[in-house]
Amino acid sequence: MNIFILGATGRVGSKVLKQAVRDHHNVSVLVRSPEKLSIKGGVTIVEGDVLNENDVMKASEGADVMISALGTDKTTTLSESTPILLSVMKKQGIKRIITVGTAGILNSGTDPGVYRFESSESKRKTTRAAKEHLAVYEMLNKSQVEWTIICPTYLPEGDARGGYRVEENYLPEDGKEISTGDTAHYVYQELIERNHIRKRVGIAY
After folding, report:
1. Cα 57 to the chain's mean position, in Å?
2. What is the pLDDT confidence band of residue 122, given thresholds at 50, 70 and 90?
């Protein structure tokens, strides 16, 4: 498979990259700082900016699927880059995108009709990051692409250990956390198995 990864130097993206290279996929990445990549062998590396459509076009050439593990980092990069990604997908003929979101944009299990970040379930003091991820969800949902948004709750650094639960559109009951390793494991599993097309997926232990 030809896989294009955004956020490949990040906590989740770097672990998705490792799995894709391990299984001998053709992998390309777009990164601002190539020196931060944990793996370089077997990877086509394009240095550039996700907000530059020409850079995204160059890095995604020949891709079958996009994976975005971009973080919010107190910016609007997520919401600003999504129209660019959708434009590039159309031009390149890429039909599938998997992104890493946040549990805040899942449906509330306690307050019907609202998102978790708007409900009493949310313990976050700020909703800025959730609103950025919500903007991405709304744009993807209006598009024609085959999207999946993996929505982890509290995300401590850690290896994959298994035993996590997933649920469409909701966070698994009493889910409190999920490691970066297991989140990356599930992103890669969804890439291969395609179980949740055009769905948000909550993930937690």
Report:
1. 19
2. confident
Q: Is the Cα torsion angle 148, 153, 156, 159 positive or negative in sign?
A: negative
Q: By the 8 A CB rule, do 162 and 182 touch?
A: yes
* Chain-centroid distance, C-alpha 96: 12
Q: What is the mean pLDDT of the chain?
A: 96
The parent domain of residue 46 ranges over: 2-204
Rounded distance between C-alpha atoms, residue 133 and residue 130, angstroms: 5
Q: How confident is the model at residue 156 (pLDDT cuts 50, 70, 90)?
A: very high
Domain with 16 in it: what CATH number? 3.40.50.720
What value does the mean pLDDT take over residues 196-200?
A: 98
The answer to whether residue 72 scores a pLDDT higher than 90 is no
φ/ψ of 15, rounded to 5, equals -80, -30
Is residue 10 classed exposed, middle or buried when 0-12, 13-18 and 19+ CB atoms within 10 A define those classes? buried
Domain count, the chain: 1
Backbone conformation region of residue 74, classed left if phi is above 0, alpha if psi is from -120 to 50, else beta: left
- CA distance linking residue 166 with residue 147, whole number of Å: 17
